Amino acid sequence: MAIEKIEWVLVQGGVEEETIRTHYKQLLRRQHDFLKGYISFFSYLHSPRDDEEQEASLERYRSLKEECEYHIGQHEGYYKKYPDDILSVLHSNLARALFKIDYISKNEYQNQAACELHFDKAISFKPDNWYAHNWYATFLKEARKDFEGARNHYDIAVRGDRNNPVFPHNLALLHYEWPTFSRQRLETAQRDVRESQALCQKDQQWGNFISYPEELLAKINLLLGRSDLRDGEPLDADELLPVDTN
Questions:
Q1: Helix (H) or strand (E) segment spanning residue 97
Q2: What's the rounded mean pLDDT across residues 137-146?
Q3: Is 56 within 8 Å of 96 (Cβ atoms)?
Q4: Cα–Cα distance measured from residue 181 to residue 222, given in angstroms and rounded to the nearest whole number
Q5: CA dist., res. 138 & res. 170, Å (int)
Q6: Alpha-carbon distance 246 to 238, whole Å?
């Protein structure tokens, strides 16, 4: 009932963000093993705001980081026992927050080692945390420039949840952003992004997401239509899309 009340307030609007965060925090401190509460709170913190300035985005991710660190500290300090699925959510969201702070700050990914550590822990606690694999893949692509490693974890996410359009979209985006031109890779990206579109059309809850695969498909088609590129040639990164629609 408490989480339903908070989410109802979010739909109605008009309540200050700090008040919403306080209610979430109070709920999770009372009921630290409430998985749905963490997912709801962290989804709220991940959601971008219209016309949000950089500092406000950073503040959201710092708040997410602090909340994850608090609960991980409670578990590791033996104050409370947290189930593995919640520990996976905490570590994956902490890694994600650190990555986003680095990405927004353009600080040359100073938190790389910590991100790697927490993604590893998230996946070890719950190997079928598909969002952990998806976010880890984005981290590998952007921070490590490890495109093969990223493809492996995107593939795991796609195979794990066939109904989530975010995962095939991000796999297609990886193939589109690959540093060298490959017609075969781009044709694979076409297939994956069309799968993302179809999933969005199948389930109305993804109605707000469908613009991402639509935009990406148009970009892929333009690149495939170019006659001046040969397989193996480097691509100009300035011609490609910005990252991250997780």
A1: helix 84-105
A2: 97
A3: no
A4: 13
A5: 8
A6: 21
